[in-house]
Amino acid sequence: MDRGRVIEFLAQIPLLQRLPNLSLRKIAQSVRVKRYENGEYVVHEGKTGELIYFIFEGQAEISGPADAEEGNYPTVSLKKFDTFGHENYGCINRANVIALSKLTCLVLSDHYSNFLQPKSIWNADEASEGFSLVERTLCLEPLEVDIFRGFTLPGSPSFRQVFGGQFIGQALAAASKTVDCLKLVHSLHALFILAGHNNVPIIYHVHRIHDGKNFATRQVDAQQNGRVLFILLASFQQKVVEEFEHQEVCMPHVPDPETLPNLEELRERRLSDSNLSMEYRNKINSKKFIPWPIEIRSCDAINFSEQSQPRLNYWFKARGKLTADPALHRCVVAYASDLIFGGISLNPHRRRGLKTASLSLDHSIWFHRPVRADDWLLFVMESSSASGGRGLCNGQMFNKSGQLIMSLTQEGLIRKAKVAVQNEVPKSKL
After folding, report:
1. CA gap 49, 67 in Å, rounded
2. Options 110, 325, 338, 374, the catalytic residue
3. Dist CA 342 CA 413 (whole Å)
4. Cα separation of 430 and 194, whole Å?
């Protein structure tokens, strides 16, 4: 059987969708085809399970053991994309599986069962500890089909609550692990509802809204303690051949990222700048500083205490090593897209002594072209309007070649800062 056809089939099996691409390709190389006639036994009760079966064509049923009391053992029907045997390999089969028609299965020996137990959802062979903080943040724990658990790791951006980009990136990671690996996200729309607690795991429940030949749609609910905090709607598209293409917008002329200081270097410069008051420098130094997992090099001066134009350009990329999975790179860029973005709508209203706050309300991204999150990307952003306590921001991301990679919009809540109350129950942002 053609290997491309096998990969395309396996990529649609829910059990396998949460695996890394490499694991799926290893399975495609290792399965063999077995065919059965109507009424033929595929699995015999009482024999040791040594194979994992993926139904390619036809139907089968699981029937109870011969000594089971009538009516106490339900019959289960199986069809295309269903899997059986994976829970029993190495153990005694407790039931029979019988073909109900001509049946074709792709069969994986339990010798290769380790392919179903990768190091992470992104990497088949290497433990996530050796990878970047942002990839480890996006390495969700599969609990069941369509249910994942995420965590806020030490060193993650912290704003007294779960960073909005973490919700976006982790929810997109969960959605990406419920579609076949041949489809990549082309648009997402997110709604922030409640603030999240950094010390509580986040449960991501994926709803399979639509599965088509070329497109798939997923909704993801992020929950803590049974409360929905965040909702993501994402659309995925099968890779297409070259079609119509144009780009009218041009990347602005900005310095190369290699010539610009990063945020850590800017902080050190401020600490040693004798033109700044000692009180201001001591205040900067007293704040605990943990570098973000995304390196940022701003093309413009960043000053959160003085009035400025509602726009900003900065280069960014992920720190450290990333697995070469295109779905992961889109998740990383989605994670990074919430950094500083909504805050620029406050720029015209800043002044010394005025404490302000901004919170993301909703966020949308359109992916136009392939992206690598471990190479420099230019984030061009501006705020076109602020009113009613909300600021609207528009953004574009370019690679170093000047190609438009993504378009973004975000609306955020902007206001004067309020004094935080400890142990206060999160309130709706709306």
Report:
1. 20
2. 338
3. 8
4. 9
Assess whether 338 carries a catalytic annotation. yes
The Cα 393–Cα 310 span in angstroms is: 9
Active site residue 345: no
- Do 38 and 98 touch, CB atoms closer than 8 A? no
pTM, whole model, 2 decimals?
0.88
Structure tokens at 1: 């059987």
Containing 171, the helix (H) or strand (E) segment is helix 164-176
The residue from 176, 360, 383, 396 that is catalytic is: 360
- The per-residue pLDDT for 343 is 85
Helix (H) or strand (E) holding 333: helix 326-336
CA dist 299 and 380 (Å) reads 10
247 closest CA partner among 401, 139, 93, 386: 401
Q: Is 17 a catalytic residue?
A: no
Closest listed residue to residue 365, CA positions, set 186, 116, 206 = 186
What number is the average pLDDT over the span 127-132? 79
pLDDT band of 126, cuts 50, 70, 90:
confident
What does the pLDDT average to over 334-361? 84
Instruction: Indicate the SS3 state at residue 389.
Output: coil
pLDDT of 91 > 80? The answer is no
In order of 168, 178, 210, the CA distances from 216 in angstroms are: 18, 10, 5
Q: How many residues does the chain have?
A: 430
What distance in Å separates the CA atoms of residue 104 and residue 85, rounded to the nearest whole number? 15
Radius of gyration of the chain (CA): 26
pLDDT digits (tens, 9 = 90+) for 13-53: 998 999 999 999 999 999 999 999 999 999 988 887 788 99
Catalytic residue among 132, 224, 345, 410: 410
Task: Tell me if 316 sits within 8 A of 379, measured CB to CB.
Answer: yes
